[in-house]
Write a structure and sequence with these properties.
glycoprotein, hydroquinone:oxygen oxidoreductase activity, mainly beta, binds CU-O-CU linkage, CuRO_2_LCC, 3 domains, 4 helices, CuRO_1_LCC, about 525 residues, secreted
Length: about 525
């Protein structure tokens, strides 16, 4: 294995889009930021220097961080932020991982502009379990606000009203007519490494006249399947093979949001171009029908087609015996608020607990036995107030708290994540730090504890780090708690995270020295 060193300089940069210019926070002046390249088992060392007037942290989304929880990055969970003028070295190993992931800022809404790709190639000499592509391309989806993104969320926090929706979607940082162009040659195969780095939107992706073969999601190989539409929640990644089957021509690529609910929707389509070599200027553009914003069947159909590869080289190791069987309701509601415009404030919760960010880092507090006054370990394994999860409006008031759910080292966990309809049901792309999980089941309506488990897939469930819990439905996940630390679990729609749809698991140390979290690095920032 090799050491891969990167320098991440956090700097402001003026960017013009949609005819207006604003300064944004970037890494090394780039939007999207630099791509991190490595191979499986490599050691990655990123030297971060903060040259902006914001506190910053970086999260390596989907990197398991085996015994390197100090480098995971969510602010106040595993580290205090790197303050203006400060530095921090992220140091982790890509143990047993290969594929496409993303990194992003993990404090407030900075990830809107601070994100980039992680490409992990297989070990030298190890082939892909699919035909070798002619070449590989990275495609990053983003969202763009004309106004300052931090102002957008701060305003919303103060007013109690939902934040303004973005003004555009971007593909590789570009919008509209000056968009991104993917150049291809007839007859060749391309591996597209696709990343949804949008802040608040699950997205469909299409290329007119073309199909994709999906081979990997969230850096886990899948059984290949063909589709004309990809579906990615924010934080999710998909590797798909595109075969350039056409003679010269221009084909439209589109990303469009999925939202099958009644709350304010963002229906801005982002576009880019697939252009064949030798296309003449007279050849016109082929476009295709974009999925309607409420195309539930396309979104669910895509997730249903995902199966882990489960081959001799890449076996699927689903926990069969479960130590912790948890039931989490997730949803958005309102609480009274005297200083807010309508007298109420939007709030989101898991099991009726809306998570309050601490002001010091939880992992440090845990490691030095100073968690008192920072967090408690009484996060409920079932909702505090039972109710009909898909019924009418109820349970509008939630409790606040900074609570973790404690897991013994190497214990196995099943979580039924049940979407609720406190305000309106909504799809929630839910993300776990520190481990992948297996998606063993999903369904619409209320989870049925007697019948639904009989239908669980314990043979080849897809392995992911982020899963969409369907609107007014549920998803069942399983994982093994073999990574000591404090691991954030939250909706990856940033607006829901801001409202409190988050919690953390505390995984205890094991007995032997290679089952314990090592001491923190000496440059770990202080709060
Ligand atoms: Cu991609 Cu906790 O985030």
């Amino acid at each position: 294995a090799n050491i891969r060193r990167y320098k991440f300089n956090v700097v402001m940069k003026n960017i013009t889009k949609l005819c207006s210019t604003k300064p944004i926070v970037t890494i090394n002046g780039k939007f999207p930021g630099p791509t991190l390249y490595a191979r499986e088992d490599d050691n990655v060392i990123v030297n971060l220097t903060n040259n902006v007037n914001y506190n910053v942290t970086i999260h390596w989304h989907g990197v398991k961080q085996l015994r390197t929880g100090w480098s995971d990055g969510p602010a106040y969970i595993t580290q205090c932020p790197v303050q203006p003028g400060g530095t921090f070295v992220y140091n982790f190993t890509l143990t047993g991982q290969r594929g496409t992931l993303l990194w992003h800022a993990h404090i407030s809404w900075l990830r809107a502009t601070v994100h980039g790709a992680i490409v992990i190639l297989p070990k030298r000499g190890v082939p892909y379990p699919f035909p070798r592509p002619h070449t590989e391309k990275i495609i990053v989806f983003g969202e763009w606000w004309k106004s300052d993104v931090e102002a957008v969320i701060n305003q919303s926090t103060q007013s109690g009203l939902p934040p303004n929706i973005s003004d555009a979607h971007t593909i590789n940082g570009l919008t509209g007519r000056s968009g991104y162009t993917l150049h291809v040659k007839t007859g060749k195969k391309y591996l597209l490494r696709i990343i949804n780095a949008a802040v608040n939107d699950e997205l469909f992706f299409k290329i007119a006249g073309h199909n994709f073969t999906v081979v990997e999601v969230d850096a886990s190989y899948t059984k290949p399947f063909n589709t004309d539409t990809l579906f990615l929640g924010p934080g999710q990644t998909t590797n798909a093979i595109l075969t350039a089957t056409h003679p010269p021509g221009n084909f439209l690529m589109t990303i469009s949001p999925f939202m099958d609910t009644v709350v304010p929707v963002n229906n801005a389509t982002g576009t880019a171009l697939l252009r064949y070599k030798d296309t003449t200027t007279t050849q016109s553009l082929t476009s295709s029908k974009i999925p309607p914003i409420n195309a539930t069947s396309i979104a669910l159909g895509f997730s249903d087609s995902l199966r882990s590869l489960n081959s001799p080289d890449y076996p699927t190791k689903v926990p069969l015996k479960i130590d912790h069987s948890l039931f989490f309701t997730i949803g958005v509601g309102v609480n009274p608020c005297t200083t807010c415009i309508n007298g109420t404030k939007t709030i989101a919760d898991i099991n009726n607990v809306s998570f309050v960010m601490p002001t010091v880092a939880m992992l440090q507090a845990h490691y030095f036995n100073k968690s008192e006054g920072v967090f408690t370990d009484d996060f409920p394994g079932r909702p505090l107030t039972p109710f009909n999860y898909t019924g009418g409006l109820n349970n509008l008031r939630t409790k606040k708290g900074t609570k973790v759910y404690r897991l013994e080292f190497n214990s196995t966990v099943q979580v039924i994540i049940q979407g609720t309809s406190v305000i309106a049901p909504e799809s929630h792309p839910t993300h776990l730090h520190g481990s992948n999980f297996f998606v063993v089941g999903k369904g619409l309506g209320n989870f049925d504890p007697l019948e639904d488990p009989k239908k669980f897939n314990l043979i080849d469930p897809v392995e992911r780090n982020t899963v969409s819990v369907p609107t007014a439905g549920w998803t069942a996940i399983r994982f093994r708690a073999d990574n000591p630390g404090v691991w954030f679990f939250h909706c990856h729609l940033e607006v829901h995270t801001s409202w409190g749809l988050k919690m953390a698991f505390l995984v205890e140390d094991g007995k032997s020295s290679n089952e314990k979290l090592p001491p923190p690095p000496s440059d770990l920032p202080i709060c």
